[in-house]
Amino acid sequence: MLILWFVPLVSSCLALNTVGNLLNRLYFPGNQSCLLNCFGNYLCKHHIKKCTSLLKHYDLSGTDEKYEEYRKLLIYGHNGLRNRLATKLNLCDMLEIRWNDRLAMYANRHHTLCHRNIMCDAQNTRYLHMPDSEYAPYEAKNFNISRNGFFYRNTYSANFIPFALSNWYEAHTSLNFPKLIQHKNQTYYKLVGGYNSFFNMINPQTQMMGCSIAMFVDGRSLICYYYPFVHAGPKIYLRVMEKSCRCPYTFPVFDPVFKRICIYK
């Protein structure tokens, strides 16, 4: 019994170390205006204008205790929804997501540049809603990062984070139900995502995330970055295995806001 418990723990630790090493090699340009467009290229402005419509920015990077509740809620929500999917489809390899300040600082850049939403379209063009003509190209490609954005035209929303995450998860209704396929004696669900928000947040191999929250004069915005994003074009593969092999390696989340969304049977 001890061996059975120890194996997934070791696997989880090794996976985290591997991703940590990869993240150290992930390059973000020092210029605060440099952002990824939907084709995986960095685009940089020559100057940064002050965002006059930004009323308040919640910088979730670092250890500021006043924002710890936001960080925990985002982690609980993401892991809970991923657990929910793993339970419903009998999936394994659905790894636990943990917070990363570098990704949070990168998400901050969008809000300081007045970006309310950064979703690419559903036609696989991954077009970012900002005028590329204002930016200079930077030679780099990062297709191993995914991101979600949500803008809600209500500055007084009391449950903004749960509402945003539920909206991202609900985007699965616009996708076809994944097909079961066989490959090398393994069973997988093949999910064709078109890069929508559900597709971005439930990638099994994603282990790190960082987010930024902002309040503008016309509403609230949440932007999250995820790493790594393992995919084959617009497809990801979800491995199916018996109950004893299911992930995540952690138990379901029972946070009061997200209760009952992930229960093992």
TrEMBL record:
It is found in: Secreted. Residues 1-15 form the signal peptide. It comes from the Eukaryota. GO terms for cellular component: extracellular region. InterPro entries: CAP_dom, CAP_sf. Pfam families: CAP (PF00188). Keywords: Secreted, Signal. The keyword Secreted applies. Residues 78-226 form the SCP domain. This is Uncharacterized protein LOC111592523.
